[in-house]
Specification:
Mean pLDDT: 92
Low-confidence stretches: none
Strand content: 35-45%
Number of strands: 5
Radius of gyration: 13 Å
Helix content: under 10%
Largest sheet: 5 strands, antiparallel
Distance between the termini: 23 Å
Strand order of the largest sheet: 1-2-5-4-3
């Protein structure tokens, strides 16, 4: 997984796969899910990102794994 932030357009892209996108589903205003030819999710785009969440949290993560 890779996370990209483009400050010029205020967009975050969460890349889940190296596959090429063949489809896109807008799930909410400015939130798009990219899919491949098998309808698997390969990326998530968030437009106007700074208005949707605190950008300081982009590169932090927490794994909640079963014990």
């Amino acid at each position: 997984m890779k996370i990209h932030y483009d400050k010029d357009v205020d967009a975050v892209y969460i890349e889940l796969s190296d596959d090429s996108a063949t489809g896109c589903v807008e799930t909410a205003d400015g939130i798009n899910i990219d899919t491949n030819q098998d309808d698997r999710i390969i990326g998530i785009e968030i437009l106007n990102a700074s208005k949707k969440f605190d950008l300081k949290t982009i590169y932090s993560y927490e794994l909640d794994l079963p014990a």
